[in-house]
Amino acid sequence: MSLQTDDLLSVQDVHVGFGEFTALDGAHLHIARGGITGMVGPNGAGKSTLFNVLGGQQAHQGGRVLFDGQDITHWSVHRRAQAGLTRTFQISREMGALTVLENLLLAAPQQPGEKLWHALLNTAAARQHEAQAMAQAQALLERVGLWRLAHERADSLSGGQKKLLELCRALMLKPRLVLLDEPAAGVNPVLVSEIADFIRSLQAEGMSFAIVEHNMDMIAALCDPVYVLAQGKVLTQGSFAQVSAHAQVVEAYLGGVA
Ligand SMILES: Nc1ncnc2c1ncn2[C@@H]1O[C@H](COP(=O)(O)OP(=O)(O)OP(=O)(O)O)[C@@H](O)[C@H]1O
Ligand SMILES: [Mg+2]
């Protein structure tokens, strides 16, 4: 399988097993530069496992992951994030006892080299870095309507607000590609459409996304193409209309429920 020029990320023949169980069984897919790619499939299809592989949280037994033309298969989470690839988690990972603002400041990229010494010595460079992170965090929180809650504990937020905080934490790294694992799960419909608008506005600024969702309204509104995963494999891909009309997709979902 060749890497097309408009692919920002490409997954080739990735396998993940947990003991006897195969979670990913030779997955192939492409995430287009500047696009919003959808990933759907029944519970247990391997969607989060795939994101774990892409984010560097999960080792895999075979295959390759290419990001912007580079083979990142053996890169650490940190190196992937530095290169512009980051993700959110299905279960939000905010630090509940810290404030909303502190959560964002902790997610700011580290200064290269000697960060600790700069901080200890309170150098001008460290102060400038902190001021930049603060301005970025404030701008993000204002943009998503959470600035008024900046000094509240993160565990006081609603489920939807936690999803927004999780997304903002990923955005502190100024990524090029963000993988969103169920950004609409447990979120009220008004906030779902606000999150969708926010994703669309980030896309208009040049950011690329892949979204795992069970909320088909969100997938239909944002994503093209849509990949359908079932039992660790890509069953089909195409526009939302195309994949929804696919007989095996209907069967895979019904099979997941039965
Ligand atoms: N660390 C692990 N150890 C053992 N099995 C695992 C592990 N992680 C995932 N699995 C199994 O791998 C399969 C795929 O899990 P995964 O979380 O990727 O599914 P998913 O498509 O994200 O499902 P959902 O829509 O419910 O989030 C499931 O059967 C799950 O139980
Ligand atoms: Mg999942």
UniProtKB/TrEMBL annotation:
GO terms for cellular component: plasma membrane. Pfam families: ABC_tran. It comes from the Bacteria. Residues 9-256 form the ABC transporter domain. One of its GO terms (molecular function) is ATP binding. Keywords: ATP-binding, Cell membrane, Membrane, Nucleotide-binding, Transport. This is ABC transporter ATP-binding protein. PROSITE patterns: ABC_TRANSPORTER_1, ABC_TRANSPORTER_2. InterPro entries: AAA+_ATPase, ABC_AA/LPS_Transport, ABC_transporter-like_ATP-bd, ABC_transporter-like_CS, P-loop_NTPase.
